[in-house]
Structure formats: structure tokens, C-alpha cells
Specification:
The structure holds two protein chains of two kinds. Chain A is mainly alpha-helical. Chain A has a single domain, classed as MetI-like (MetI-like fold, Orthogonal Bundle). Chain A has helices at about 1-10, 15-35, 45-60, 60-95, 95-110, 115-125, 130-150, 155-165, 170-205, 210-220, 225-255. By secondary structure, chain B is an alpha/beta fold. Chain B has a domain at about 5-80 and about 160-165 and about 190-265: P-loop containing nucleotide triphosphate hydrolases (Rossmann fold), CATH 3.40.50. Chain B is built from seven helices and ten strands. Chain B has a six-stranded mixed β-sheet, sandwiched between helices. A four-stranded antiparallel β-sheet of chain B has the order 2-1-4-5, with helices on one face. In chain B, helix 2 packs parallel to helix 4, helix 3 packs across helix 4 and helix 6 (about 195-200) runs antiparallel to helix 7 (about 235-265). The longest helix of chain B is centred in the C-terminal third of the chain and has 31 residues, at about 235-265. The chains are: A mainly alpha, B alpha/beta. At the A-B interface, helix 8 and helix 9 of A face strand 6 and helix 2 of B.
Chain lengths: ~260, ~270
């Protein structure tokens, strides 16, 4: 009993450790900024960033920018899921196509695809279509790769069960392959959504067109550095929230597997 | 009388990098309606190949398979297969797993759920309808697979080492359950196994296969009273059957072991 108590004292819960580390970092940053060890103009203290949120909400239209950015990111992830799952299925079905393209898609996943934005700017113009298209490009590689991985990993015995009941290839896919691969595919969609958010905010920033990216760009141009950091912190916080929510959904999907 | 299942001169050769391997060599088996037949043999004797051929999962083979006198090829709804590996669908509850074949056949939801409930009761899983396979033991999952296979009331129930992954006690209890189901439904059953006691406990006839190429080496009729249960295993006659089968199987199992060691040494 005593040793159990000691162990629990020695090991605080993970959440306390995580937030404790963050709080320590912020306190150190605040102290360094106030002491003048780091320039408050270049890197404002956390308290100033926190205070800038009122301005972000009231004057800069943070909520509208958020809705626009995440609307575009979700549209990109949705479109990317439809295309990515279809392409992943083709790479799974055709051994030759899988052999020819899988490594290239994996290489694409590690490339800074956001740099392709001038090409899309020429094709679609300076509007939402370019931003959504860039989001789609960003989220495609993980969705394609995870779809292929999920479908490749379906146990042959499950497919044999379908065969013994005379399922057509389409019903085999719909009733067995897809649900069996769903947790892995969802993992790809989850990573894809995060890549889409990164690309959407990045392109909004680069082409200065709507959403959180443009808001951060404008604030930087006006030397509203604390508010600019506030915008960046907001994007990070929302991304982290999405990460945790989708992680919970994924865990739930996996637990039924 | 026409046998329920007739396997005539079935042979199968696999092409491998090391050359052709004759897995099965002119195997012929007739099974009467309601009969429980086990095929026993050492690893590598082609037992599972035989099951895949009868189950329609292998198309490219020599010989013929007849169901009630009619030549069949490919998967048949009249031949239900219980696989050795875990084959329940993890994303479906127990009842949805059992209802799967009826859903695939387009049966209305109410009808298939009612039938699935009956089958779950038959395999002793009432009360577990809404559990996912991950929440159930290996033995319970295999009972779901059996119930699912029985959904269409198949003429032939094929079971490929269905208890191989289970511990000995669960295996014995599940054997009792299979006996009870077979008795209730008068189900014609072909069991593939490498467990001698299991074969004796369940079967009317045990077919002993030779090591590669797989042939029927000997047929032993099991003359033990029915209804049976695992309690039979303590009996003298049971022991005699086990000894007689092992007598034949020992030589084949030794060949299998030598082959395995030769392959390993070569690797």
C-alpha cells in the first residue's frame, strides 16, 4: 500500500506532466522577455499574446477567418478522401500500378508540396479554388498510402468467407474489404486533414487571400507582432484539438477491431 | 444410395521455385448424409488443400466433386466452411456476424435477426448477441463462425482444424458442442484435423492420409455409441481407436518431420 502511494507520488499523471512542461516553458519565456533577454518586439511575451486575443476576436474577425480556413480544409480533406481512397484502391488492386507508383506517392508525402502554389494560381486564379486544390494535394499522399496499406492488410480468411457466400467483387469490397480496412484508412484521412490544414493556412498566407493565413500575413505587415503570434497560437491550438478529437475517434474504431 | 458428398480422384500439383509439388494424389471419399467424417494426417499431407478444393476456394485441380450426385466447381452455398483461422468480422457484433450470409443474400432484417438469434442459442451464445468479437474468447469467436456457417443450413459442413488455436479444455468443450449441433441438425460434416482424440470423439469414420503426396492410407470406422461427449475419452475402446490411428499416422508424421528438418537444413 505504502509503496503504491510512493509510486503514485513519483509518477504524476501524464496530463499533469504535459501541461506542467508547457506552463514551465511559458513562464520561462515570459521571464526572459520581461528581463530583456529576448526582444519583446520580435518575440512578445505570452501575456501580450494572450491579451491580443480580444483584438483578434473583435477587430480582426478571427471567428470568420477560422470558419473560412477550416471550411476550406474540410472541403479539401473531403475531396482528397474521395480521390485518395479511389487511387489507394487502384494501387491495391493492380499489382503493377502498386509497384510503379507507391514509392512515388510516399516520396510526395515528404515533399513540400505547398511550393506548387504558383501552378495552381495560374490554373484556378487567386481564389478559394486554389486554396482547396492545394489542400487536396497536401492530404492525398497519406490517404492514398493508408488506403493501400489497409486494403493490403485485410486477412485473406475474411475474403475467403465472402467467397464462400458467393459475394460479387463489389459486395466483397463494400461488405468486407472496406470495413476491415476502415481504421487504417481513417488514420490516413486524419493525417490528411492535418496536412490539408497546413497547406490551406500556408497558401492563404502566401497568396494573401482570406482565412487565418491572410489574417496572420496582414498582422505581420502591420507589425502587430503580438496579435500575429496570437493568430499562430490559435491555429496551433485548433490543430491540436483536431488531432486529439480524431485520435479519439481512431482509437474507438480500432477498439472494435 | 447417392452420397451427400463425393470426392472423386481429386489431385493437385503446386508449382514452386523448387519444382512441382504433388500435394494430393487421387483422393476419393464418399460421405453419406448425416455422416461425420474426419480427415487426419501429418502437416503437409494436403488436408487443407483438400478442404479448399471441396469448399470451392481452389479451381485448378484434377478430379471431380459431386454434391448429391451433381458435379460442382467453385464456392457453393450448400457447402459451408468453418476456417482454422479466426474469421469473425471484428467490426460486427456477434449477431451481425451470424446474420452476415443472410444479409448478403438479401433477407429482410427481421427475418435474419430472428434466425441469427436461434443460431446463437444453438451454439450456446445467447446473451452475447451485441458483443463484438474482441470482447469474446477464442472459443466463443469460433462458435460464432460455426453459427454463421450454419445460417444457410448447408448440406455439407466443412471444418478445417476449427479448434487448432484453442487450448485443450476449450477444444474438448467445443467438441461436445459440435457433437450436439451435429446430432440436432443431422449435419453432414467433413472435419480436417491433426488431433487424433478429436477425430475419434467426433467421427463416424476417420480417414488417415499419407504424407506428401496426400493419399487416403486407411479408413477406420469409429464404432462408439451416440450421443457422445468428451466423457468417452476415458473409455478403453476410445484408447484403442486412438492407438490404432497413431499406429498408421506415426510413420507419416515421421516423414513429415524429416521433410521439415530437411527443408530447414537446406535453408
Amino acid at each position: 500500500m505504502a509503496s503504491a502511494t510512493l509510486t503514485s507520488l513519483r509518477k504524476p499523471p501524464a496530463i499533469v506532466t504535459r501541461f506542467g512542461a508547457l506552463a514551465l516553458f511559458l513562464l520561462g519565456w515570459e521571464a526572459a522577455s520581461r528581463a530583456g533577454w529576448i526582444s519583446a518586439f520580435i518575440v512578445p511575451p505570452p501575456s501580450e499574446i494572450y491579451n491580443s486575443f480580444e483584438m483578434l476576436f473583435v477587430q480582426e474577425g478571427l471567428v470568420d477567418a477560422f470558419l473560412r480556413t477550416f471550411g476550406e480544409a474540410f472541403a479539401a480533406a473531403g475531396l482528397g478522401s474521395v480521390i485518395g481512397i479511389a487511387v489507394g484502391y487502384l494501387l491495391h488492386r493492380s499489382k503493377l500500378a502498386g509497384l510503379a507508383y507507391t514509392d512515388w506517392v510516399a516520396a510526395m508525402a515528404s515533399a513540400p508540396l505547398v511550393l506548387l502554389y504558383p501552378l495552381f494560381l495560374v490554373v484556378f486564379g487567386r481564389n478559394s479554388a486554389t486554396i482547396v486544390a492545394m489542400g487536396v494535394v497536401g492530404c492525398l499522399p497519406p490517404i492514398i498510402l493508408k488506403t493501400k496499406e489497409g486494403l493490403d492488410g485485410v486477412k485473406p480468411v475474411l475474403l475467403n468467407v465472402g467467397r464462400t457466400y458467393g459475394l460479387t467483387p463489389w459486395r466483397q469490397f463494400r461488405m468486407i474489404q472496406f470495413p476491415a480496412a476502415l481504421p487504417t484508412i481513417f488514420n490516413g484521412v486524419r493525417i490528411g486533414l492535418l496536412f490539408a490544414i497546413i497547406n490551406v493556412v500556408g497558401v492563404e498566407y502566401l497568396i494573401v487571400f482570406g482565412g487565418l493565413g491572410q489574417m496572420i500575413s496582414d498582422l505581420g505587415d502591420r507589425f502587430e507582432i503580438a496579435a500575429m503570434f496570437g493568430g499562430i497560437v490559435f491555429v496551433i491550438l485548433v490543430s491540436v484539438c483536431f488531432f486529439f478529437i480524431t485520435e479519439k475517434i481512431e482509437t474507438w474504431l480500432l477498439s472494435s477491431k | 444410395m447417392t452420397p451427400a458428398l463425393s470426392i472423386q480422384n481429386v489431385a493437385k500439383t503446386f508449382s514452386t521455385a523448387q519444382g512441382d509439388v504433388r500435394a494430393l494424389d487421387h483422393v476419393s471419399i464418399d460421405i453419406r448424409a448425416g455422416e461425420f467424417v474426419s480427415v487426419i494426417g501429418p502437416s503437409g499431407c494436403g488436408k487443407s488443400t483438400l478442404m479448399n478444393i471441396v469448399g470451392g476456394l481452389v479451381d485448378d485441380y484434377e478430379g471431380e466433386v459431386h454434391l448429391d450426385g451433381a458435379l460442382v466447381r467453385g464456392c457453393q452455398k450448400q457447402i459451408g466452411v468453418v476456417f482454422q483461422e479466426e474469421s469473425t468480422f471484428p467490426w460486427r457484433t456477434a449477431i451481425d456476424n451470424v446474420a452476415f450470409p443472410m444479409e448478403a443474400a438479401g433477407l429482410p432484417r427481421e427475418a435474419r435477426m430472428a434466425r441469427a438469434r436461434e443460431l446463437l442459442e444453438l451454439v450456446g451464445l445467447n446473451g452475447f448477441e451485441n458483443r463484438f468479437p474482441s470482447e469474446l474468447s477464442g472459443g466463443m469467436r469460433q462458435r460464432i463462425a460455426i453459427a454463421r456457417t450454419l445460417a444457410f443450413q448447408p448440406r455439407i459442413l466443412l471444418m478445417d482444424e476449427p479448434f487448432a488455436a484453442l487450448d485443450e479444455q476449450t477444444r474438448l468443450l467445443l467438441g461436445d458442442k459440435v457433437l450436439q449441433i451435429q446430432q440436432e441438425l443431422n449435419q453432414t460434416t467433413l472435419l480436417i484435423t491433426h488431433n487424433i482424440a478429436e477425430a475419434v470423439q467426433l467421427s463416424d469414420r476417420v480417414l488417415i492420409m499419407s504424407f506428401r503426396p496426400g493419399r487416403i492410407k486407411r479408413v477406420i470406422d469409429i464404432d462408439l455409441p451416440r450421443p457422445r461427449s468428451s466423457k468417452l475419452m476415458g473409455g478403453e475402446k476410445f484408447g484403442q481407436y486412438v492407438a490404432a490411428i497413431w499406429e498408421d499416422l506415426r510413420e507419416e508424421a515421421s516423414k513429415g518431420l524429416q521433410d521439415m528438418e530437411r527443408v530447414r537444413a537446406g535453408a
